[in-house]
Specification:
Layout: H1 20-24, H2 29-57, H3 63-67, H4 70-73, H5 84-108, H6 113-135, H7 140-145, H8 149-162, H9 166-175
């Protein structure tokens, strides 16, 4: 697995196939750290896009920051203003964004732009289907809030494409050593 030591490894340059299982079973702390930072960055980009979306819909612009608090606080999470719904929702959102960013970094393992782009499109589909359409509606407060599933698809697309920043964060981490 010598090719995995090169962070800018291009899968197209490998003769035959490379061993994905070996890559996924190798702990790479710097890569996970880069994924955490990419998750934070992607979360911020997603929330900015959400603020624009909610403003155009006539909703409170910080509604997107509160949605992650629905499973914990129930419908009180969407109470108007910068109350506990905003704080709990924001903290919950960024914990989940960090976990998703670390998962993305672990699954991709390389900084090849084509590979990251394809993975981002797949990540969008899986996030939208499993998180938005299957998991989140199992919380009654989320289901009752009637969150736009179409809007969430574009939010996941923005989040997933922003996760491609893992390549930048990974390069930066290795340059400082």
């Amino acid at each position: 697995m010598n090719h995995m030591k090169n962070r800018n490894f291009n899968p197209d340059s490998v003769e035959g196939e490379y061993n994905l299982a070996e890559m996924w079973n190798t702990f790479r702390g710097a890569r996970l750290r880069a994924g955490a930072f990419a998750g934070i960055f992607a979360g911020i980009v997603m929330q900015i896009a959400g603020m624009i979306f909610h403003a155009t819909q006539g909703d409170e612009i910080i509604k997107g920051w509160k949605i992650a608090g629905l499973p914990i606080l129930g419908r009180d999470a969407l109470t108007y203003g910068f109350g506990e719904g905003f704080v709990v929702g924001t903290l919950t959102f960024f914990v989940l964004a960090i976990i998703l960013g670390m998962g993305y970094a672990h699954v991709t393992g390389v900084n090849n732009k084509k590979g990251l782009f394809g993975t981002s499109l797949t990540w969008t589909g899986f996030s939208w289907v499993f998180i938005t359409n299957l998991f989140s509606p199992s919380f009654r407060a989320y289901y009752e809030a009637n969150i736009s599933r179409g809007g969430m698809f574009f939010a996941w697309l923005i989040f997933s494409l922003s996760l491609m920043s893992v390549a930048w964060f990974d390069k930066e981490g290795y340059q400082k050593k």
